[in-house]
Amino acid sequence: MLKGKTVLLGLTGGIAAYKIANLASALVKLHATVNVIMTENATKFIAPLTFETLTNRRCVTDTFNRDFSFDVEHISLAKAADILVIAPASANTIGKLAWGIADNMLTTTALACTCPVVVAPAMNSRMYQNAVVQENMERLRKLGMEVIAPASGRLACGDVGIGKMPEPETLLAYILRIIAKKKDLAGKKVLVTAGPTREALDPVRFISNHSTGKMGYAMAAECMLRGAEVTLVTGKTSLAPPLFVETIPVNSAAEMYEAVLSRSDEMDIIIKAAAVADYRPESTAAEKIKKTGEAYALPLVRTKDILKDLGVRKKAGQFLCGFAMETENLLENARQKLQKKNLDLIVANSLREQGAGFGTATNIVTLISAREERQLPLLTKEETAGEIVNEILRLRP
Hints:
Blueprint: E1 6-11, H1 20-29, E2 33-38, H2 48-55, H3 73-80, E3 83-89, H4 91-99, H5 105-112, E4 117-121, H6 125-129, H7 131-142, E5 146-147, E6 151-154, E7 160-164, H8 168-179, E8 189-194, E9 199-200, E10 206-207, H9 214-225, E11 229-234, E12 246-249, H10 253-261, E13 269-272, E14 279-281, H11 285-292, E15 300-302, H12 306-312, E16 319-326, H13 330-340, E17 345-350, E18 362-363, E19 366-368, E20 373-375, E21 379-380, H14 381-395
Parallel strand pairs: 1-2, 1-3, 3-4, 4-5, 8-11, 8-13, 11-12, 13-16, 16-17
Antiparallel strand pairs: 6-7, 9-10, 14-15, 17-19, 18-21, 19-20
Helix pairs in contact: 1-2, 1-8, 3-5, 4-7, 9-14
């Protein structure tokens, strides 16, 4: 995902410095080139050799080190970087960055950077809440740097409060959001539905399906990475919602219908990837179960058709994408659904193909529009999401 990208990591003195080894490793696994600069104090917490081993590149610690082929190193590192992430960022370094002080290799390089700069503060709660530190962080924001809010919890000093550096997974999410993808959806509002809905039979039992939400969550993440403002309406799943996405949890088909239709007019693109239950029990079902105990002979009524109503009220320029999952006559049924529900694109995937369907990490789909049909090979759901977004961009007027 990060092939061809260069990430510059800057570490300052703090116990959280050891966590950056995990971040460096994760970036290398995503095929990024990773350069590391450490302040002298950072080297007291973790050895430069750790990062040299993980990145297979020299870790820079001294502005005036002569043990390298001639180059103005702080300039060359700054030029090569697609992003600079300073984590952990001490109060001392934050103050230097805010006022242009360049007295070590990290602050000197930061001053030369024109790429996005992300700062992750990590310090004692009292230091973090100090008015001077808060003013310096606000100055960094005004200068165009992104300052990540620290987490709360037990700190290294034994205090409990705000000031913990976010976990490496969170830092990685920030990096991916900024540099992983071309921002070809910038300025667009996208709504994605995901996961299963649940139709209650009684306080204990419900009607649902086997959807895990993986495909819908992959779609939401892909659109976010490509610059869109994303709203994710999701049934219950075991997945963690993507960062930087507005997430609206729902249970029933009626709740999903209301959440989607109430926001549909403001959306440029709507992608319905949720597996909505087609039927719900009649409103008197709970009483019938209570009286007779016959849960399986209950009359059912159809739930509201989200895609159909979205198609009816689709505004000019809005793009509507649906999913079709069938056990037979997949392409024929998908084509009919495309036309009847006024869709611009439908993604057809069969439950019968190995590697596709509910709960898998991969998918095999056919993209069907009024213009053409294109079958994709077996891909991860993240790769499939990327191809679907490419198709949406190609088809949009």
